[in-house]
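Researcher: Quick one. four chains, 290 residues in total.
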Amino acid sequence: MTTPHVDQLSSDLAIHAARLVRLIRRNLEQPAGIRVLSLLDEHGALGVTALAAADQCSQPTMTGAVARLRDLGWVDTRPNPADARGSLVDLTEAGRRELARIREINARLVAERLAAHPDRTVEELAAAVAVLRAVTTDPSEGASQ
Amino acid sequence: MTTPHVDQLSSDLAIHAARLVRLIRRNLEQPAGIRVLSLLDEHGALGVTALAAADQCSQPTMTGAVARLRDLGWVDTRPNPADARGSLVDLTEAGRRELARIREINARLVAERLAAHPDRTVEELAAAVAVLRAVTTDPSEGASQ
DNA sequence: TCGAATTACATAGGTTTCCTATGTATTCTG
DNA sequence: CAGAATACATAGGAAACCTATGTAATTCGA
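Model:
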C-alpha cells in the first residue's frame, strides 16, 4: 500500500465520495436519516450515544437525527428499562418499509449509472464497499479483526 | 450487474461514502473547496458555470465556493477577455501548495486506515475510485467512452 | 441593426446536517 | 453518600447545498 498512486487515488476517493453523497442528497429526502435506519436494522435497538458512536457523529447530531426520524414515524423511542438515563431507539414498521424503499432507490441509481460503464463489475462494487468500510472504520475498533 | 447483492452493496456504498465525507470534513477546513482546487488543477482556468457543471453542483453553490477560495487566496478571478459576462477562475501558487498539502493529508488518512486492514489492496482502492467515478459520472456524458 | 432569447454570474432566502459547549438527570464507585 | 462518570437534551452557530430571480453581456433572427 505504498505505491506512488495511493496519494492520487486517496484524493480521488474523497472527491468522488463527496460527489456521490451530493448526488444522493438530491434524490433523497433524508440522506442522514438513512444511515440511522440502516444501523438500527443492522444492530437492533440502540441508545442515542451508541448510535452516534456507530455512525461516528456527535451525540447531539444523533439526538437531532433521531428526533427527525421519530417525527416521520420511522423510529420510536422508549425508556431503557435497565438504565433510566438512557433510551432505546428502534425501527418501526414504517421505518423498515422506508429503509427497503430507499435501498431500492439507491440500488436503481447505482445500478443504472454503473450500467453505462460496462467495464465495471459487481466484484469492483464489492471492493469499493470493502475499501470504504475499511477506511471509515475506526482503526482502534477493528484492530482485533 | 443484477446479482441480488447489488441492492445491499449500493446502499452500503452510499452509507460509507457519506461516512468518509464526514470523516474528511472533520479533518479539513474546506472540504468543498478541495474539489474546486482539484478541478482547476485538472482542467486549468474555468468560469464559474463550467466549474459548477464539472462538479455537478448548482451555479450559486460554485459562486460561493469560489468566493471563499478567493478570500483564502487559493484562487484568483480575472475577467474573461473573450466574454465580458464571464470570469476565469484559476489556482494561485498558494492554491497549488494547499492542494498538495491536502492531498498529502488525504493520502495519509486513507493509507493509515487501510493499513489497519491488510486484506485491502491498492487494486481494490483503484477499483473503488473507478466505481465511484462511474457512478458519479453523468450517464449522458460518458456514453461515448 | 435592433430587439429577443440566451448565457454568465450574483444575490436573496431557506434547508439540512453537523459541531462544540453546556446543562440536567441518573448511575456507578470509593 | 458525595463525587465522578454517563446518557441525553438544549443552545448557538457554521458549512454547504438548493431554487428562484435579477443584472449585464452576447448572440441571433427578422
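The first strand of chain B starts at residue 75 and ends at 79.
Researcher: Thanks, that's what I needed.
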